[in-house]
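USER: My hope is that you can spare some time for a protein that puzzles me. I am handing you a single protein, as its sequence and its fold in token form. Walk me, if you will, through where the backbone shape changes along the chain. The protein I mean follows directly.
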Amino acid sequence: SLDKLADSFKIKKGKGHFPYLFVNKNNLNYKGPTPDINYFPRISEKEYNIISFSGRAAKKNWDLKKEAINYLENDLLVLLQVMEKFNSSLFVNHNIQMTEGLTISRLAFNLFYTKYFNKIKPIPLINKINIFNFLSEGYFGGITEVYKPYGQNLKSYDVNSLYPFAALNPMPGTVCEFIESLDGNSLDLNSLFGFFYAKVKTNNLYLGLLPVRTKSGVIYPNGEFSGVWSSEELKFAKENGYEINVIKGYHFNKVENVFDNYVFDLYKLKSESSGVEKAINKSLLNNLFGRFGMNIVKPVTTSVNKERLEYLMSTREIKSFLKITEDHFIISYSPIISKQICLEHGLDYIKVLDNEKSLNLEKSLNLFTDVSIAISAMVTSYARISMIIIKLEILKRGGELYYTDTDSIITNTNLEDYFENSVGPNIGQFKLESHIEEAYFISNQTYCLRLKDNSYVIKAKGVQGTSLTLNDFKKMYLSETVSAIKTETIKDFEKGYVLIQNKKVFLNHNAYTKRQKIFNPKGLWVDTLPLMYNNVTKSITPYYKYT
């Protein structure tokens, strides 16, 4: 938030507080006592008392118009000071200008290419649509799963810079060839490096080892299925008992130490700095690798009428759109016609292609020429492997898993007792985040931790965590529906207003569907197992097991 940015950048005059919930069309010229504290979002009693004459008496001359103008002025001034300090830090420490890129990932990209890129170790720029589409099938993010919904006396560990650590592994080079098995026999997996379409049969471990995309999201199932994965993940799965039949894919040469200097320099800078400098170095360190995975086809942003909007929505992937008037919209969309979206809207994909062939879309596409999805996909692949290795070892030694996010694990195990040099300050090592007295894990990014010091960590995707309590999570664990507060922003560009309001919503206690829930004889959810997935029938087979 801008408030936190101001604190981090040590800007003396903060943004301040404003009673958004107080404003309505009938009181725009309000003058009188300071509005009640309940109208001010995210304000402490101490801060409110300062606003209202330190609590001695509420202001009697509080002017809504003046306060709004003052608040907006502070907003702009604080943001300007943040930008100036941010730009100064980038220039002094890294010799780059903020204006060289629109995003932190672009700035990281510029820094890498100007200071660290080694022409002897080139990166494969993927700018052919057919190759990009194949590799993107093997590009997955981190693992976020609930294993056990309730636990006591747990430990929460985070990895120090997981993706940069993963990027220290060998990367795909610029020598690439398409390889295919023509006789149905598996290609020699041990000699491959790249991304390959394979048929897989699992051995029903407690953890699924390979990600699979389904209509309801990415899962790590057991069963028989096919897909595209990195050669390194396929090798890892095979080493752990999976049957792997590699059919075809893109084989790259291996290149060592592509990102080593960048990673070690930025990690050292991050470790030795604090405050804003630490945050900037951390962002530059972490945001480089995702930049390579951008879609090579640049989206088109334009203004359209309602008829054109409806046609584009039925034939293309829509990034965003804004309603300006009843017949005027600003839309951002992928220019490539989507077969899946056409089918979902009852359109004949071939006819749509024929109708638009005169536009020569393929030749008029605006492409990014400095991206490499092979790099991003390989980095995330290495990261998943390193996390699963630790989790498998925890289970092997009799420990239990409760929850995992991309770079974190919650377990009942002391990692430092089990694994030598696993916990520490170095890149790739774990750090102990918290000692947990009691925890409820309801779904992805929806959990409550009561720590040993009786403080709480509450995360609830899509709603205000402060609107929930430990008791609410206990109710959801016991299959009860609870309510929470969601902040909504309603925009009307035709009338020129933005309305921020709180809305009461209900949380589904049964929202977690990425693993199969296991219940005890009393019907209480106690554990999970991977879903059973069949790629041929595209079916996820639920099964119920009591423990």
